[in-house]
Amino acid sequence: MPSPRKAPVRYDAMTREQLVAQLRTLEAGSGQDADVTQALIRDLAAHQLELELQNREMRQAQEAMEESRQKLADLYDFAPVVYLAMNERTQILEANLTASALFGIERKRLVGQFLTSLVVAADRRALRDHVRRCVSATVRAETEITFSVRNQPPVIAQVTSVPLFAASGKVAGCKTTIVDVSAFKLAQAKLKFLAEASATLASSFDYRATLAQVARDAVPILADICIVDLVDRGELRRLEIAYADREKAERFAWLRDAVPRRDVRTAVGRVMRTGEPLLFSDCSPATLASTEEGFDHEALVKASGAQSMMVVPMVVREAVVGAITLIGAESGRRYSGTSLATARDLATHAALAIDNARLYERAQEAIRSREDVLSFVSHDLRNPLMGIQLTAEMLLRSARGEDERRKGWKQLERIRRGVVQMRRMIDDLLDLAGLESGKLTIDIVPHEVKKLFDETAELFAPLVEEKGIALSVLVPAERIDVRCDPSRAVQVLSNLIGNSIKFTPAGGSITLSAEVAGTHALVSVTDTGPGIPPVVRPHIFERFWSADETARKGRGLGLYIAKGLVEALGGAIWVDSPAGGGTTFSFTLPLASAAEVDSFTATAETERGPFVGRG
Q: Is 225 helix (H, G, I), strand (E, B) or coil?
């Protein structure tokens, strides 16, 4: 009786471990079974098990490949850049979903279109040249292209292409990436605008003209409409309205002369009152129709089709001096916090320019006032003083006999000295004004240093004799000629010697000396006075500066003027005062060449001409 037939084993229901165990069992029993049929059955079962194991591994590998393919497809489709393939005629063969999102076209409709049809007209040739270069030269090509996107501002993109090879090995087109760099370009343009605006505002102290120019430059980089309002004599006035759209500029020309409202119901009025900026990310007609914001927008904002708006204050020393309004209209731009930061930077630069210009105007007014005073001093006051001095000197000379001199000589001498001092003060003020305005008169000629010393020593001979001070001159045997204005050089020496006489006690000495030091002559005035304390030396050449212990001995102008004159003559001046006492003021003057001396001497003799006596 035949044995009952076993049900076929379901290998596909077994796990891999069960399949391996069953295969080993069959392999172990195949050598023990003498029945050929049974052995063949076992071999077939073992082969079936091996096939099942292989099929299982193939299915797992296929599932892994499908999972990887899906991940790659997601990476391709949702990459932050556009991926597409196109032929040499720019026809799109394949595109990812990012391309569909960028251009606003479904992928199935995008494939088959020509990429040139999505490019602004001015850049179409550039795109064709880009593709031609990539295909013909089989190289990587890069360029910048502006794309036209429906209902959106143009997109500036970096386009990079590499050759696309067919199965035959021939170049079939390009594989291209498109990266939207519009935001980067916009930020770059804003930074460039701010730099240029700063330069424009700093180019002139006429801040009204420069602010108006900046408003015109702001469109369309920052806004479609830019308005600048300024406080002028307590009233808020409209300085400039700039439009990106010429048609709007003509249509709203009448608003240029409109007086902006300053009440808090308007955005400008609120900003002027609080000093804080306002940002309207959305000020479309629908928003304007509501009253939630509490603002009564100006007619221009309502009529211009404004979509977004910013109003920023210009603040000078905590006072709001104006406001800048930036409006996004036909471009569809929407302002954000980043946009507001840019606008505030612009307002800060503008406020600084206004502050500098107004300070300059005040400084100019002060200079004009000072010049008026100096004009009065130099003409209306100087001439009467000269008359008084001449009259006093004439009376002193005309007095005969000891009795007449005793009657009024001391009073006349006191008048004469007072007038001389007042004239010296006037001369100091005029020299100070000339130095600070750069209008000091300097006549450079070659001149011998010893002659400068002799002339100055002669001027001070009576004064040093009266005070009991020895004044000596030390110069080398070899002649030293310098390039200077002789009268100004004598003035410098006079200021230094006069300063030494003030502080040198009776029985002391003052020495004038000179030597050659390279390309300059080194001139020194040395006294045996008490010296200058170290704390005082850094300030000794400052204007109107005097140490407390010497404040009554001068006006603090002599050394300041001496320094200015020396520098105007091309030299430098400094002071040395050792701890043991005594002071040396030194300054340099450029040496004159022998050729300069000869030329000047010959010219002077020619101008004098031969002496002709008169009978």
A: strand
- Two tokens at 370? 């000072």
Cα distances (Å, whole numbers) of residue 518 to 170, 471, 482, 484, 515: 80, 27, 12, 17, 10
DSSP letters, 325-359, are: EEEE-TT-----HHHHHHHHHHHHHHHHHHHHHHH
User: Contact 585/531 with Cβ under 8 angstroms?
Assistant: no
**At 316, is the secondary structure helix, strand, or coil?**
strand
Q: What is d(CA 574, CA 520) in angstroms, rounded to the nearest whole number?
A: 15
pTM above 0.85, yes or no: no
Which residues have a Cβ under 8 Å from the Cβ of 65 and sit 6 or more positions away? none
284 near 296, Cβ under 8 Å? no
Q: Are 363 and 257 in contact (CB under 8 A)?
A: no
- Chain segment 552-561, per-residue pLDDT in tens: 444 567 888 8
Query: Do you find a cis peptide bond into 4, omega within 30 degrees of 0?
Result: no
CA distance 212 to 224: 15
More confident residue, 283 or 501: 501
Concatenated DSSP letters of 230-272: EEETTEEEEEEEEESSHHHHHHTGGGGGPPPP-STTSHHHHHH
Q: Which amino acid is at 505?
A: P
189/196 Cα distance (integer angstroms): 10
C-alpha span between 341 and 277 (Å, rounded) = 10
pLDDT in tens, 350-387: 999 999 998 998 888 887 777 777 666 665 666 666 67
